[in-house]
Automatic annotation (TrEMBL):
Binding annotation for Mn(2+): K290, D314
Residues at which UDP-alpha-D-glucose binds: K121, E122, D151
Keywords per UniProt: Cell wall biogenesis/degradation, Glycosyltransferase, Membrane, Transferase, Transmembrane, Transmembrane helix
Originating species: Linum tenue
Transmembrane segments: 21-43, 63-83, 569-592, 604-625, 660-683, 695-712, 827-854, 874-892, 959-978, 998-1016, 1028-1051
An annotated GO BP: cellulose biosynthetic process
Protein name listed in UniProt: Cellulose synthase-like protein G3
Superkingdom as given in the UniProt entry: Eukaryota
Length: 1053
């Protein structure tokens, strides 16, 4: 049968076109040439390692560092080529959309998700403007629903949207009648473009200013006053809020602000749905940050509107083109693209207010334009968090294997029967927003946004591609969305550090792009291309190496690159210029300028020395030591002075941040190296002149100087608030007479103040100035033998508390007021040295760790580290050990009037502290000084668990929780046990006379075994909840085996 005219017209009407990038042939030709150069460079490094020119360790280390750096560069270059092999530029034909979708009612409905989390970092008025811009889309309003997720659970945000719903009734018809393009009211009224000046415009502007004033007043006041609440419905809504609600603890709250079936605008037309959602939060439940909020919106929207298309937006990313949904439908409704496997249409992130040269590279031309165009020639672009139209079905399994949700009402095929305000609909919506709803379901693993990474957008898009879904990149000439880019360097680096940590979570997960991605349905190239982002932080390795190594070598007169007379010399300029020229060409072709490209490459270097480096350290601290950083919302609040400096192109340092230390050090070292290198060359006599000069090192140092210019300005001659800070000072206050008490330290003597006054007013005190009177700390409920030597009844609490003390002690000992310097000068030698005993407490970890491992490992390898029994020096060790221990026991039992058993437990805990809290406290202090650790102050729990109490009273050590602080002591216990058994075996088989050189080591191992009996019980014998965790035992065994193996290699030399 012949097709009818309508069918023929639909088939002939293309909804979009796709053109190949004109530079593709050059990229395909250049790639193998550049690859050969890379292989040649790696060959040179390997050759120099195997056949070094000199046998010095420094030469080997230098070559190895350069090899590692160039291997990373080669890997990252290879992942970049994926996006240069088949880039596509698409153009949509919105005018043809009606040829495919015959009637407006056939357009797919769209649920819009907008997420916010903090009314002070993300001002509600900005979120409202974003919502109004999408509510005013040139799209059927009954097919549009806007959901606002408020993860902060703030009445301030709800109030802003209550006011926005009223204003929308005038704003939407105004935009339609006047064909307004800028449908964000703040942008429309704030722009300098000529708008029609008439009564309606002034009236609407007045309404907007009134709304703005109310919202800003409420946010400033921190509460919604009764004067701003209009009518019983609003009274009922805000009456549900309680003073007990916090950002992390509040119930589910869903408020329908506009209902498309009932609410009309001033012209009598329907309004889009506007729904406020604040999911339930509890401090005892996992919430998965933004991914968790989006999954709640997926479920809530499914029960209320369940539109087939979902648009996700950041709260500051407003719509800049009212035709955007129709542009997206040119792809989602195109039968040629295969709707059955088309998951999403991604728009690029664009930003307004970026200064002329984009000094912080906030445009991300590569990430948001060049790479998506390249990926569009494969499976499609990555998901970048905002400006993305999803097919709802894509969140529920692969194209060929759908995954059914736990209840059909949250699935993509559910048909909503009632109004969004109906009781049954709201009841179900509240239920699916509860914090415990996802327990024992597939949400976050097989359904919805995927959990497991801070960059939920990248990870979710990656998983969808791995399941076989495709995506499309839509980059219209007029930006579809505009957002705010950070104008503070610290904000920019912290934001990207958070991204880096999330990317590493993907790179080292079981869904790693390097192992899982390349074997998935996405194909090898797409999976390998995903590695470009997943291993983003690895850029820090080559950047650090080339920012310091050539310069330090130049300062020491060492040549690490070929001379100009060597053929290998020309390989380096080709690799450098080839990579930089190709990158610049890519940048310019997507609409950038040379000056912006220069800023982009400078920021690339800066990231390698800051956020990439610190993110890698934080990631490994989080997963190996359990020191985790929280999720920080990037502030959208703009400081006026900062904004002025940013507009002038001035870098904003301002705040004290450890991330500024590496780039500042690199800039200064590059400057010194360049000056010294040029001076040395100028003063050189004879020889080969410039031909024998370290030209490549001079170039690298000079390149670092040029890129470090903003740092020299900030350090050297700037005096504004954005200059590089020298230090941060703190001010403390005191009172003339103050009693300080811990919250659990109650008084047992009502006459205590009188005892204090006896010291202040008695005659012996004449002429003396008492600063304080200290009473001893006494504890109740300590068990018979005081197994922990302290008050908490949980072993982990004891060690964490003393780890905190250790950090504080180190802070004092390493400060300018250290007892070792100022204390001795101000207080005298004896008192100053006495304070040193406490401030240097954590260094006990050095001898304890040494004597807990080194003699034992030597014993296992038959190596003697102490004198033989027949050696006179043997008696010295015996005297030192027995003398110190006996004196300590005598003091403990007489002065403290305690028992031998309690003294034994005290010395055992002293050893344990050296292997745990002292060691970790010192480590935390070093990390804190470098600005790496984000560990906060942890209160010691005063809550007593009854079962813990019973075990404590029985004298049983309480391990229970899995903590890295238990690992060293468990390792020491295992190694001491094995070495002691090995030593006894040597004695039994060969007699004491054959092992007299190992006697002290055997005794020391036995002493360690005796002290470790509670650990052996907890690891092997006990079955109660306070036993040593199986995961910790396994880790201790594995690490102990590795350590013994390394010791075997070390002692074999």
């Amino acid at each position: 049968m012949e097709d009818d005219p309508t069918t023929r017209r639909r088939r002939s009407s293309a909804l979009h076109t796709a053109d190949r990038w004109p530079i593709t042939p050059f990229n395909r030709l250049f790639a193998p040439i550049y690859l050969l150069a890379v292989l040649a460079l790696l060959y040179r490094h390997v050759t120099n390692l195997l056949v070094p020119a000199t046998s010095s360790p420094s030469s080997f280390t230098t070559t190895l560092a350069l090899l590692v750096a160039d291997l990373v560069l080669a890997f990252m270059w290879a992942t970049t080529q994926v996006f240069r092999m088949n880039p596509i530029r698409r153009r949509e034909a919105v005018e043809n959309l009606n040829d495919v979708v015959a009637e407006e009612g056939e357009l797919p409905g769209v649920d819009v998700f907008i997420c916010t989390a903090d009314p002070y970092k993300e001002p509600p008025l900005g979120v409202v403007n974003t919502a109004l811009s999408v509510m005013a889309y040139d799209y059927p309003r009954d097919r549009l629903a806007v959901y606002v997720s408020d993860d902060g659970g703030s009445a301030l945000t709800l109030f802003a949207f209550v006011e926005a719903a009223k204003f929308a009734a005038r704003w939407l018809p105004f935009c339609e009648r006047n064909r307004v393009v800028e449908r964000n009211p703040a942008v429309y009224f704030g722009s300098n473009r000529g708008h029609p000046v008439d009564g309606e415009v002034e009236e609407i502007k007045t309404m907007y200013e009134s709304m703005k004033h109310k919202v800003e007043h409420v946010v400033e006041a921190g509460k919604v006053d009764d004067q701003f609440i209009d009518g019983p419905k609003e009274q009922e809504a805000f009456g549900k809020w309680s003073d007990k609600f916090t950002k992390h603890n509040h119930p589910t709250f869903i408020q329908v602000l506009l209902d498309s079936k009932n609410d009309k605008d001033v012209d009598g037309h329907v309004m889009p749905n506007l729904i406020y959602v604040s999911r339930e939060k509890s401090s005892t439940s996992q919430h998965h940050f933004k991914a968790g909020a989006l999954n709640v919106l997926l479920r809530v929207s499914a029960t209320m509107t369940n539109q087939p298309i979902v648009l996700t937006l950041d709260c500051d990313m407003y719509s800049n083109d009212p035709a955007t949904p129709r542009r997206a439908m040119c792809y989602l409704c195109d039968p040629k693209l295969g709707p059955e496997n088309s998951a999403f249409v991604q728009f690029p992130q664009k930003y307004h207010g970026i200064n002329e040269n984009d000094i912080y590279a906030g445009e991300f031309q590569r990430l948001f334009q060049a790479m998506p165009m390249g990926a569009d020639g494969l499976c499609g672009p990555h998901h970048v968090g905002t400006g993305c139209f999803f097919r709802r079905r894509a969140f529920f399994g692969s194209p060929s294997s759908p995954v059914a949700p736990e209840i059909p009402e949250v699935g993509p095929d559910h048909v909503v029967g009632g109004s969004v305000r109906s009781g049954s609909v709201l009841e179900l919506a509240h239920r699916v927003a509860e914090c415990g709803y996802e327990n024992q379901t597939s949400w976050g693993s097989k359904i919805g946004y995927r959990y497991g990474s801070l960059v939920e957008d990248y990870y979710t898009g990656y998983r969808l591609h791995c399941e076989g879904w495709k995506s499309v990149f839509c980059c219209p000439q007029r930006p579809a969305f505009l957002g705010d880019a950070p104008i503070s360097l610290a904000d920019m680096l912290n934001q990207q550090k958070r991204w880096d940590i999330g990317l590493l979570e993907v790179a080292f997960s079981r869904f790693s792009t390097l192992t899982y991605g390349v074997r998935s349905s996405a194909g090898f190239l797409m999976g390998f291309g995903y590695c470009q982002n997943a291993f983003w932080p690895s850029w820090s390795i080559p950047v650090i190496v080339y920012s310091f190594l050539p310069q330090l070598a130049l300062l020491n007169g060492l040549h690490i690159f070929p001379k100009a007379t060597e053929p290998w010399f020309w390989l380096y300029p080709f690799l450098f210029l080839g990579a930089y020229a190709q990158d610049m060409l890519d940048f310019l072709l997507v609409g950038g300028t040379f000056q912006r490209w220069w800023s982009d490459q400078r920021i690339w270097l800066l990231r390698g020395l800051t956020c990439h480096l610190f993110a890698a350290v934080e990631y490994f601290l989080k997963y190996f030591l359990g020191i985790a950083a929280g999720f920080n919302v990037t502030s959208k609040v703009i400081d006026e002075e900062q904004s002025k400096r940013y507009d002038r192109g001035t870098f904003e340092f301002g705040v004290h941040s450890p991330m500024f230390v590496p780039p500042t050090a690199a800039a200064l070292i590059s400057l010194l190296a360049l000056v010294q290198g040029l001076a040395a060359q100028a003063m050189s006599r004879g020889g080969g002149g410039w031909r024998d000069a370290p030209l490549l090192q001079l170039f690298v140092a000079g390149f670092g100087v040029v890129n470090g210019w903003p740092i020299y300005e900030a350090v050297g001659w700037r005096s504004d608030g954005g200059r590089m800070p020298l230090r941060v000072s703190a001010v403390m206050t005191n009172a003339p007479l103050v009693l300080t008490l811990d919250c659990d330290m109650f008084s047992t003597n009502p006459r205590t103040p009188l005892h204090v006054l006896c010291y202040y007013f008695s005659p012996p005190a004449a002429g003396r100035k008492y600063g304080f009177v200290q009473f001893p700390q006494r504890f109740r409920g300590v068990n018979k033998h005081d197994i922990y030597g302290d008050s908490p009844i949980s072993f982990a609490d004891v060690l964490i508390q003393q780890s905190r003390w250790s950090v504080g002690a180190f802070e004092l000992s390493m400060s300018k007021k250290s007892p070792l310097f100022m204390g001795i000068r101000k207080l005298g030698w004896l008192m100053g040295l006495g304070y040193c005993h406490f401030s240097f407490w954590p260094i006990w970890s050095l001898p304890i760790t040494t004597y807990a491992f080194l003699p034992q490992l030597a014993l296992l390898n038959g190596v003697s580290v102490f004198p033989k029994v027949s050696d006179p020096w043997f008696l010295l060790y015996t005297f030192l050990f027995l003398g110190s221990y006996l004196q300590d026991m005598l003091e403990f039992t007489t002065v403290s009037n305690s028992t031998f058993r309690r003294w034994w437990n005290e010395q055992r805990i002293w050893t344990v502290r050296g292997l745990s809290c002292f060691l970790f406290g010192g480590f935390d202090f070093v990390l804190k000084s470098l600005g790496v650790s984000t560990k906060g102050f942890s209160l010691t729990s005063k809550v007593v668990d009854e079962e813990q109490r019973q075990r404590y009273e029985k004298g049983m050590f309480e391990f229970g929780v899995s903590s890295p602080i238990f690992l060293p002591m468990a390792m020491a216990a295992l190694i001491n046990l094995v070495s002691f058994g090995f030593g006894l075996g040597r004695v039994l088989t060969g007699g004491w006379w054959n092992v007299e050189g190992l006697v002290l080591q055997i005794v020391l191992s036995g002493f360690g075994v005796l002290n470790s009996v509670p650990i052996y019980e907890a690891m092997v014998v006990r079955r109660d909840p306070g036993k040593f965790p199986a995961r910790g035992s396994f880790a201790a065994v594995v690490v102990s085996v590795v350590l013994c193996s390394l010791a075997s290699v070390m002692f074999s030399f």
